[in-house]
Amino acid sequence: GENVEQHPSTLSVQEGDSAVIKCTYSDSASNYFPWYKQELGKRPQLIIDIRSNVGEKKDQRIAVTLNKTAKHFSLHITETQPEDSAVYFCAAEGGSEKLVFGKGTKLTVNP
Amino acid sequence: ETGVTQTPRHLVMGMTNKKSLKCEQHLGHNAMYWYKQSAKKPLELMFVYNFKEQTENNSVPSRFSPECPNSSHLFLHLHTLQPEDSALYLCASSQTGGQEKLFFGSGTQLSVL
Fold first, then answer.
1. Which of B106, B99, B60, B50 is nearest to B81 (CA)?
2. Is B40 left (phi over 0), alpha (psi -120 to 50) or beta?
3. Which of A1, A87, A107, B50 has fewest C-beta within 10 Å?
4. Omega before residue A82 within 30° of 0, cis
5. pLDDT class for B101, splitting at 50, 70, 90?
6. From A95, which residue of chain B is nearest by alpha-carbon distance?
7. Cβ contacts of B33 within 8 Å, gap of 6 or more
8. Confidence class of residue B97 from pLDDT cuts 50, 70 and 90?
9. Is A61 within 8 Å of chain B by CB?
10. A42 touches chain B (CB under 8 A)
């Protein structure tokens, strides 16, 4: 079945810097890759997703890139702000339509 | 109220108790899910209901029993739980059963003593 590895587990950046979180997946049939943000004590919320027929997708300060050959995808946050501080989860949906999550990255943006 | 609502927000129960978690979605979605979130572990899918029919039981112990009376409501009945079952239980919904664009509830923080 699908296996998703997420790195780093914690990330600390200064306000205004960029943050990059990387995930790798094992099932070459996976075709859907969402990212969720979970602020402390709150529900996970979808922030961006990408399908395997697209290499990159942007939404304001957030972008996701996908390398199907290498089986990895990344979340890029530019001009980080303190409200970006949260745990970010990647996920991959394999050929069996099962969505498998990574363990999460705790991002801290220092003012 | 909009979105996905879960009750109770917090629950403490003994190993011999029986309790139920409730989830309601006001989004008109056709699929609902139960996830378990434990510290330092990935979100674990427990159950999937698509158009009220259970389509996935991810090897969950029988002490967890789901119920989906209609597309808007989902329950998780708990009995004779173990301390290791303590976790945040999240309900989610999506338009279809493919787990895409999930809307999560705020969860029930469960402690089993």
1. B60
2. left
3. A1
4. no
5. very high
6. B98
7. B45, B46, B47, B48, B49, B91, B92, B93, B94, B99, B102
8. confident
9. no
10. yes
